[in-house]
Write a structure and sequence with these properties.
The protein is an all-beta fold. The chain contains no helices and 24 strands. Strands 20-19-18-17-24 form a 5-stranded antiparallel β-sheet, with no helix packed on it. Strands 1-2-3-4 form a 4-stranded antiparallel β-sheet, with no helix packed on it. Strands 5-6-7-8 form a 4-stranded antiparallel β-sheet, with no helix packed on it. A hairpin with a 4-residue loop joins strand 17 and strand 18. The protein is globular. The two termini are 24 Å apart.
């Protein structure tokens, strides 16, 4: 497999995307897999609406696309106003609000050398309207929403932090704060558990880490390649799934690379909670 990302536990299976193949795949715990949809987009992140429909971030179309039961794609929301350079990750909360983020700079060139960074988070409401609700994030990556729909957590990979925002009744964000300072870690995909902790995957340090609010490290799962994202799921919600691959560096992202992508699973003590939902 190639560069694997965006794991989601949905209807008894793990769903994930293979960015380099342009595929979204579902796999059960017996290893039986199904190709769900093909769409060339880099990145290729997705989540599920409360009615069960998949929505995927398409940088080819500069839009959020819904996926029909037959695999047909349709425009759900125009994302061109978020960034002309494309978007990255997505999470859908329990009210049907979708949060989509963008680093908003040319990845190959690197971020601008300014104290204020161009990365942003946009809100897509259930009527398909998009608006920017948070700015000045160095590299927004994985996102998660607390079980009460009251807090959005965003991984800022380049500032080595998990950020938290209060979520208003209209989906707007306020009360920005550092939820956890992670030292030199580079948090990528994240998920939350029922004890209020967060798991984050870390590519350069080849691990998946559970942290409490404030940054205390509670558990570390070592990997032999970069950890791109993680998801709690399984029958009891206490299986940690990690999608991992060998990272060639930014220069090799578009090259013919031996990614050696893997889906890994291990049991943990605390089940998942919040969104992405299980």
């Amino acid at each position: 497999m190639g560069l694997l990302e965006s794991p989601r536990w949905h209807r008894g299976r793990l769903w994930f995307s293979d960015w380099t193949a342009g595929e979204i795949i579902a796999i059960d715990d017996d290893g039986e897999s199904e190709l769900i949809v093909r769409h060339q987009s880099l990145p290729l992140c997705f989540d599920f609406l409360p009615d069960g429909r998949m929505v995927l971030v398409s940088n080819q179309e500069r839009a959020l696309l819904s996926v029909g039961a037959d695999g047909a794609l349709a425009t759900y929301a125009d994302l061109s106003m978020v960034s002309h350079l494309g978007c990255n990750d997505i999470v859908v909360d329990g009210r049907g609000n979708a949060y989509v983020n963008s680093p908003n700079f040319d990845f190959a060139a690197g971020p601008p050398d300014n104290p204020v960074q161009p990365g942003a988070v946009a809100l897509v409401t259930p009527d398909g309207t998009a608006r920017v609700v948070a700015e000045d994030i160095a590299f927004p990556n994985g996102m998660a929403v607390s079980p009460d729909n009251a807090t959005l957590i965003v991984a800022d990979s380049y500032r080595h932090q998990l950020l938290a925002f209060d979520v208003g009744a209209d989906g707007d964000l306020s009360g920005r704060r550092v939820w956890a300072d992670l030292g030199d870690a580079a948090p990528d995909g994240i998920c939350l558990d029922a004890a209020g902790a967060s798991w984050y995957a870390d590519v350069p340090h080849e691990q998946c880490v559970r942290v409490a609010e404030g940054g205390e490290v509670l558990q570390t799962v070592p990997l032999d390649r970069g950890g791109f994202a993680c998801m709690l799921g399984g029958a009891n919600g206490a299986s940690l799934y990690v999608v991992a691959a060998r990272w060639p560096g930014a220069a090799g992202l578009h090259a013919d690379t031996k990614w050696d992508g893997q889906v890994l699973r291990t049991s943990v003590a605390v089940a998942g909670a919040g969104w992405p939902a299980r």
